[in-house]
Amino acid sequence: MSVTFESRYAIGPNESKSLDTNGLRDNFLIEKLFFEDKVHFVYSHYDRYMAGGAFPITQKIKLETIEPLLKEPYFLSRRELGIINVGGAGVVEVDGQVFEIGAKEALYIGKGAKEVYFSSDNASNPAKFYLNSTPAHHSYPTKRVTKAEANKIELGSMETANHRTINQMLLHTVIQTCQLQMGMTELKPGSVWNTMPSHTHDRRMEVYFYFEVPEGQAVSHFMGPVDETRHIWMQNEQAVISPPWSIHSGAGTSNYTFIWGMAGENMDYDDMDKSPITDLR
């Protein structure tokens, strides 16, 4: 079987207070997503969100169903899938239709697609397909979105060390989805803070995937309620689950890029409860 998985149950802010560093990491940090010639997922019980990676090197790999978890005949029977390639050029085949996906390009696959395959153009520079999946109630067309086609927003400044470009890629203002939203934020050289001022949104959860973190550098990801924050130190190509009750913000020892994915009943990107920096504790 080419698909492996692990499951994470949801906990609330009161339960999280009792966690030490290892407990916090065990519940929220995804240390490894990419396994050679495998598809790997972490299933979160927050909005039943799945985050994972497909890493084809020597062979074409299939997105198979996970019978003990999904109990469906194929993976996308009742789900939608978002893909952003963070490696070399590759190909995603969806029910016989071929999509060439380059670095930092995205693909949305709607509910009902039966056969999905991943492959790399070059084994010496393989594709790394970062995957997010959520339950879906309707089938929308499969569509590729390049970085040039993304809705771009410039935020922050060099003076506050958070000058960044937000690339909204799989968002309802760009393509149709049921509830999944994904995008990519690139920090400018000299900037280290993301999502600052921070915020919460009680009607949707989020997953952050950090990449392009230079060797020897790291990112400190902040989470928790506004008045009682915690942090998780993260390395390159690691992800972190952000519950609806938690802020999600990070600062690196260098600039970096991260992919954000969201799900829940809230599709309004700007509907959030902002937290003034001076209120953080």
UniProtKB/TrEMBL annotation:
Tree of life domain: Bacteria
Pathways involved: Glycan metabolism; pectin degradation; 2-dehydro-3-deoxy-D-gluconate from pectin: step 4/5
Chain's gene name: kduI
Stored HAMAP family: KduI (MF_00687)
InterPro entries for the chain: KduI, KduI/IolB_isomerase, KduI_N, RmlC-like_jellyroll, RmlC_Cupin_sf
Pfam families the record matches: KduI (PF04962)
Record organism: Sphingobacterium yanglingense
Cofactor: Zn(2+)
Name listed for the protein in its UniProt record: 4-deoxy-L-threo-5-hexosulose-uronate ketol-isomerase
